[in-house]
Fold each of these.
Amino acid sequence: MTTLRVLLAQTPAPDREEPWALFDARGRVIREGRAVPSGWPAASRREAVLGASAVRIVDLKLPPMSEDRVGAAAAYALEDQLAGPAHDQHIAVAALGRDGHVQACVASRTLVASLAAQFSRVIAEPALAPLPPETHWRWFASDASGGFVRQPGGGAFAVSSLNSDADLPAELAWSLAHAKRSGTPAGAVEVAFGIDAVALSRCEETSRVPFRRVESWRWIDTAPPVFAAATDLLQHEFARVPRVTARASVRTFGTPAMVVLAALGLHVIATLGHWGWLRVDEWRTARAIAAVAHSAGIDAPEGESAAALLARRHAGARHRAGLAAPGDALPLLASIAPALAALPERALKMAVYADGHWTFEFGKLDAAAVVEFEQRVAAAGLSTLQATTAAGMRMRVTQAL
């Protein structure tokens, strides 16, 4: 089986050449070149490698949570770091590490949608590059355009190419200065592409940070396990769900295995039965909510939409009567107040109310304090969404429906 990987910074165009490489079943490069799409070699599988100028990787620290919540928590943590409207950005996350760190890849939703129609997988070029040592940054050149810098935690950002005057790219100069102001300066910048001594010295003088040459790297130099482990950007609405057909011969199992399979089968049947009962109960609840909404003159679909419209109707009625609704700023804050009062002194840095929810910015909190706060908020009938920030933690609290 062969795999064609194409390095792209934008949607392929019929008349634009793009770098490509053809890999064999063991992950070795058979051929490479540049060609328009019609000139790409045939392969069993096609993958797109998103150039550094079209994707950013952010290293996030999240509190303990289930895997199905990581995507929403990452999007919330990045809310104020996105360039442009949030709905125009696509965020794909890697697996959550045991230490709570996760890498989030941010790219244009339109670009990812166009690539999803042509490729079976989309990965980020910076995710293939080796990580630098602790406190160091590593600067790579991209075969697509410009270059990128990778940081020890796994984050990566795009930079312009080094110009003929050997001036440090503005993106790198600003990031180095920002890191120094934030108290996390880069110990050195490792340059993983050809650069002469004059340019290296000029970069050091401009940034006042040591610059060192290291072995050059290109995306096709990536080892097969690294390609396999790279985060696939085709997540959420772009996810591929392969159909897997299990085939096994019962005759290959002995008596002990058959007993285990029988027990497993009974467990699966019991689980499915319980799941079915829960689904029926959920359906009945949804029908009841929809019936109440209909009797109130609200034509709404079953489930949460009807509940939300009923809550909105209830809030409107109370407002017309000169009363506060549960989701208004002061009643909602009153429900949260006992949990806030139990936090350490000066833990709360900022609170903002908008669209029926409070957003709180906290300083550094230990894990026990966070868990206790969440439990108190949940006991008050409220729902939360939280994410770790550089300064501490951000939490959004809303009235649970």
Amino acid sequence: MNALSLDEVTKYVDENIGSFHEAKLKSIKKVQLTQLLKKKNPYLLKAKNVATSEVFIRSIVDAHLSSQEETMFGDFLEGLAQFVCEKTYGGSKTPGEGFDLDFTRDGTRYLVSIKSGPNWGNSSQIRDMKTSFKKARRIIKNKNIVCVNGCCYGRNRNEDKGDYIKKCGQSFWDFISGDSDFYKKIIEPLGHKAKEKNDQFMNEYSMLINRFSRQFTDIFCKPSGQIDWEKLVEFNCGRADMKLPEISI
């Protein structure tokens, strides 16, 4: 095992975290109101007694951004994990399908599929991962090979899943870094320049909320100011495509 300094981690984060923030900005700049309205559940928002355009728009925009951010930041964390393991154990991304890391530690070869958190997939996706693990064992034919599902955050008390091992949070970062406190040490580098990047994002976010709120009011609110839920549901759920007036920017 090779030692990994926190300065190296900080340098990697500084050079790569920008891609996450840029992806966030790109996502918020290209999203369209009609796209969000077709994807979100109007019945749920009515049941929550949403009554104003701004609250409605914030609800659907925040839900969209939350799902987008999880994927974007998951990609960044996967890259960070690969960097850490490359430095400590000579790990590399495997050419095999479904694997993000291939490295040897203490005489055992590990094939790792990295996910952001522990609840990352449905039964079908987990079955596909297990199939990839079994296929790799058949091809490699190495008795000292262990397949691992590594999750960058969360916890999992029962790591032995039979066909593979599942390591989450502290256990995963310790596994690839050799440092049981590494999961805490990366917090500070991840927050470097976060305020500066977030200020830029919030400026775009505020303009989007204002713009979409105005557009939503013009199209989906009655002259009295009330949300026209029937019109909204017709647009979201109706059999025929509903023609909307041109949305001014």
Amino acid sequence: MRFGEPAALWALLIVPLLVLAGWGLHTARRRALARFAGGADRVARFSTEVSPHRRAAKTVALLVAITGAILASARPQWGRGTETITRKGIDLVVVLDTSKSMAAADVAPSRLGRAVRAASSLLDRSEGDRIALVTFAGKAALACPLTLDHEAVRLFLDAVDVESVSVPGTALAEALAEGLRALGPPVAAGTEAKGRALIVISDGEDHEGGLEEAIQAVKRAGVVVFAIGCGTEQGAPIPEGEAGAYKKDAEGRLVTTKLDERPLRTLAIDTGGKYYRATPAEGEVEEIAAAIAQMGTSGSSTVLRTRWVERFQIPLAIALAALLIETLIPDGRRES
């Protein structure tokens, strides 16, 4: 026997406290009645209409009901069974560029704002998938590990800005490696999840190199990459410091950042995925969600899982029966 919510058993400490409180109230009531009657020897004449035995039975029934309700909330379980589980979701890592260039406003509200909105929309369309979040600039960092709790991922996503990674630059290859580490080792056949994918959302700038080796590692891991490019070919200056200030080079000229689609397209195509440019209508998110759904269907699997049989119905039934009995028992004495 075990309990699904063992913490609820701490509430059983209330039962002896209720017993003590009831005894205290009963004693106080008798003392008050004795004072009113003019002495303890005269209390009996005021107790002819109330049966102390029935009142005690009602109290016991109420305590049994409370105890049964607490035990039911703790979810007692005994006996084991098996259930068949079919999971069609995949493991998905959102790899989000948070470098300084993502603050450029050549797309509204900014490249990073558009990227966060696309990732959030993807969360809404990925029910049943485990999702992780990796952010990167000059280095990559795992912001949230794989989880089915999409709201937890959304909390980390909402906190993302261009200061999320302190090291400047854009290390796309390291971000891919971190994404693979977040996915874990390749999934063996016959287990729950088979489909695995990376969603890379970036402006395509890559200052560190090593992308070809990273693509080969992704292919060896059997991971599909979908890439979303944020920005325009015309580009925009990079905001820096105070409002209205922009990054300048050593000669005092504005530094303009442009969308570089080439590495993102190469990454996606070489791994069996597809490249999209971010749009206000988010049609690219719809297409990626549809492709992921197909991966989940083709990668579905069935497993047998051992589970404990819930028995909360028994203490709950006892609690309801005790409440009914407490209601049916009258306080008055039986007339002879």
Amino acid sequence: MTGPAMVPTGGYGPAVPPALLLRRRRSPLTWVTMIVLGLGGLLVAILILITGGPVASLATTLLAAISFPILIAILFWLDRYEPEPARYRLAALGWGAVVAVVLSFIAEQVLFAVPGTSTFIDTAITAPLVEEAGKGLFLVVVVIFRRAQIHGLLDGLIYGALVGVGFAFVEDILYYLSSLQSGALPAVFFLRGVMGPFAHPLFTAATGIGVGIAVTTRRPAVRVLAPILGFLAAVIMHGIWNGSTFWGGDGFLFAYGAIILPLLAIVLAVAIWARSREGKMLNAALQQIVGMGWIRPEEVRWVARLSDRMSARAYAKRHGGKPAARALREYQQTLTEIAFLHQRAVQGTGPRDATQRVTGLLQHAAALRPYVILPPTPPMMAPPMPLGGPPGGWSGPGAPRPPGT
């Protein structure tokens, strides 16, 4: 028995989409940021090399790098619905490794020299305040210059954690170099590289959560208080972590097991909840823009569900090669951005230029559509599009209108 004919939704258009369609334009600010961070990273690397020598610097750098790939992979897994652009991820890591380290070093040299302080105050109070301020400043800069880049709680958490990874990486190198000379490297590596590689990411993630909440609320009080409370939570956790080293082995283990690990579990639970909520919001927003005629009903499945996204890309690659898979990936990302922008605009928390952004994204999606190959959908499962919808054009912002309308 045979059923209805199964045809690829996207058809088989030109195999290779124009390169410009798959390349996002970078603003001058992006180029300046990457150049400055790159030069700063080179300077930090040179200083580390001068301080420790080539062999010790290379060995401790490799040792520090062991601790973070799994952590970064977890962050990227959490960020799969609407992945942040690679350049912003690199900027977050670079800010933590360069700007936050330099700012913290300079500020700590000044503040540690203030009369009346003590080693405990410097370690448990001053250092957490200075370092969390230096790391959290990245989130402030992004909100000021690229407000639309942080869409909610999960984005703030991801960016904050990535900044923390960058900071911890350079700090670990410096600690390992110092302990190498005293013979305490195994103990320091176990403490920082095995027990606590998540510490700095956890602290700054709290600031990121506060910023993420602030950008998604219309309540003025929450917009002000959420980042402040997030920053204070980061400083307190950092202070407990640093201060516990003065309490002896038992005191440190108590703080680690009874405070830090439960807080890590709470932040992970919040991240997983936010990721699940993001998926539900994406599906709801896609259904709304289907009703507006911006996308085809049968396309929702291949964008809203992560597993279906991957299977759709595999299908496109089998039938159109790598260019088709790249085109579909870009198309899925574009529809995701449209959906979330629409959702935020409906909620009243979108950027001021949300309409212009949606218009540009719709035009980009329309240009990509002829190159998109999707898995087959039975005709009976594909409801007709509203008048003016694809194929032939978009009925949403930026779409051509019939004469006389």
